Amino acid sequence: MDREQLWYVAYGSNLFRERFGCYLSGGRPRGGARHYTGCRDTRPARAERAVTMPGGIYFALTSLTWGGGMAFYDPGLPGRAAARAYLLSREQFCDVMAQEMRRETGAVHDLSEVIATGRQRLGPGRYETLLKVGERDGHPMLTFTAPGKAEGAELNAPTAPYLTMLGHGLREAHGWPPARAAAYLSSRPGAAGTWTETAITTLLTPPPPESRTTFI
Fold it and tell me: How is residue 13 annotated by DSSP?
């Protein structure tokens, strides 16, 4: 199976390596309400790359893990979406996808349609539409999202724990400071108008260390 590798391109909370680890080896992410079963193959990704994709993300529907809106990718939105690519076996990718779709792990899907045409629908659900967003080092780069577009979606503001996880991922993968991550996230459909850049910057900025008074 290692001979058939591909890049899983994450644009939401899986930007953060610790959180993505729950999909690989199982567990519950900090601040989340859901326990993940993990993959059959629990090894870490063979490689990681900070990447961007044409289009953008938006927040919609309600997450059963975080509450509030979830991140979805729409290649038709203006700009570039910040993402992180993980090099996985096809088996691992299918198990990650199954957990995102709230299906049982264990199936190995035929991905020839998305690799050949750029798009494949496995079902009507939230993350059941596969998109090919490029190739790197001879391996296809795949992600999954909702079947529709941002326009007409049931937009919903994300929660603070979810935004914090995205902010950690943007810092870790792309080196973005809180202000840059906040500008990016606060402008996304679903977050805009509810979350200000200042509020997200505060959320992502660690508190200063407690001052210590020395008594002489």
Answer: G
Q: Tell me what pLDDT residue 121 has.
A: 96
Residue 117 CB neighbour total at 10 angstroms: 9
DSSP assignment letter at 213: P
Per residue in 139-174, pLDDT (tens digit) is 999 999 999 999 999 999 999 999 999 999 999 999
Q: Determine the distance from the C-alpha atom of residue 105 to the mean position of all C-alpha atoms in its chain, rounded to a whole number.
A: 19
Instruction: Write down the residue that tokens 């999954």 correspond to.
Output: 144
Contacts of residue 18, defined as CB under 8 A and 6 or more positions apart, other chains included, come to: 29, 30, 168
What is the distance between the alpha carbons of residues 129 and 31, in angstroms, rounded to a whole number? 27
> Rounded to a whole number, what is the distance in angstroms from the first to the last CA of the chain?
66
E strand map for the chain: 5-10, 48-54, 56-60, 70-74, 80-89, 119-121, 129-136, 139-145
Q: Which of 209, 158, 212 is nearest to 184 (CA)?
A: 158
DSSP 74-107: ETTSSSEEEEEEEEEEHHHHHHHHHHHTT--S--
Sheet of strand 48-54, all strands in order from the earlier edge strand to the far edge:
48-54, 80-89, 5-10, 139-145, 129-136, 119-121
Task: Read off the tokens for 209.
Answer: 């260390």
For tokens 């198990």, the residue is 95
Higher pLDDT, 179 or 26: 179
**Predicted TM-score (pTM) of this structure:** 0.91
